[in-house]
Design a protein that fits this description.
Layout: E1 62-65, E2 70-72, E3 78-79, E4 84-88, E5 93-94, E6 100-101, E7 107-118, E8 129-136, E9 139-147, E10 158-169, E11 176-183, E12 191-193, E13 201-206
Antiparallel strand pairs: 1-4, 1-13, 2-12, 3-11, 5-6, 7-10, 7-12, 7-13, 8-9, 8-11
């Protein structure tokens, strides 16, 4: 292997494009460990190839949903059993046992959940309060409520409630779950979370920072 030592490499007069590497080249190395490759201010980097290793990507991306209706009792905070997945890029969502998202990588995460509720429509069993929570490590991180005045004329039969947030995960043991609650005038225990990827779901990913 030969070595060329110079201070500046430039094109010859009348040529404005410099080609580094040709038909016999498979890898071009610039610098060695510990070096700094400096791109001066005003320089434009134009990429027409594939760039890898620059910055971060949105990892731990998932979308889980409830496949089939799930019964929820009156005034009982209940975990949504998100038992199916649209995608789970890094296999961080457990859709078979704990129904939870454990990213196992610290950083900031975007999280969004929706639950669609359905009552059986009988008189006195219409919903008057609906709640959705995103839990972190077993406690409410964020929640959204829908509440009607207790008037005896509560008429919510079907409704969707959604919530979203950004959270800083500071431990690789952090985990996230979705919980819901329904309340009705008769104390009926036959309300449901509606199944289907378009109705009841939980999604999230790590943010690039």
């Amino acid at each position: 292997m030969s070595k060329v030592q110079v201070d500046t490499i430039d094109t010859r007069s009348g040529t404005s494009t410099m080609q580094i590497g040709s038909t016999n080249t498979s890898t071009i190395n610039i610098g060695v460990s510990g070096d700094t490759v400096n791109i001066p201010s005003g320089v434009t980097i134009a990429n027409a190839g594939t760039a890898t290793g620059f910055g971060e990507t949105n990892v731990n991306l998932f979308r889980a949903y409830r496949n089939g209706n799930q019964t929820i009792n009156h005034s009982t905070v209940t975990k949504v059993q998100l038992n199916a997945e649209s995608f789970d890029v890094n296999s961080k969502f457990d859709s078979s046992t704990n129904y939870r998202y454990t990213p196992a990588s610290t950083g900031y995460y975007y999280l969004s959940a929706q639950a669609s509720f359905s009552s059986n429509g009988s008189s006195g069993e219409e919903f008057r309060r609906l709640y959705i929570h995103i839990y972190k490590n077993g406690s409410t991180l964020v929640r959204k409520n829908l509440q009607f005045k207790d008037s005896g004329g509560d008429i919510i039969l079907h409704y969707s409630v959604s919530v979203d947030t950004i959270d800083n995960s500071t431990s690789t043991d952090d985990y996230y779950e979705v919980f819901v609650e329904q309340n009705n005038p008769n104390g009926a225990n036959n309300g449901s979370v509606v199944g289907g990827a378009e109705y009841t779901y939980f999604t999230g990913y790590k943010l690039i920072t």
